[in-house]
Design goal:
Length: 91
Amino acid sequence: MTNTEEWNEFLTNLHSNAISARKKSREYKCQKQRQEQIDELLSANLSGDQKHFADEILFELDLAYERESGRVYRQGLKDSVWILKNLGVLA
C-alpha cells in the first residue's frame, strides 16, 4: 500500500468515526425525526410514481451531500497538517 493509499484510508476512517459520532448527537436525532415527517408528508400527498421520483431525488441529494462532506473533511485535515508543519509542530 502506498503512502497516498494509507493516508486516504486513514482519512476515510477518521471521517467514518466522525459520522458515527454525529449519529449519536441530539442534532442528528432531530434531523432524522424531521426526515421521517417529510417522508410521511410525501407519502400522504403524492401518488406512487411521484413519491418514487421524489425519493430518488432526495437520495441523490443525500449522496451528493455525503460526498461533499467527505471532501471538506479531508481538506480540513490536510489543511490542519499543513498548518502544523508550517508552524514547526510536525516534521
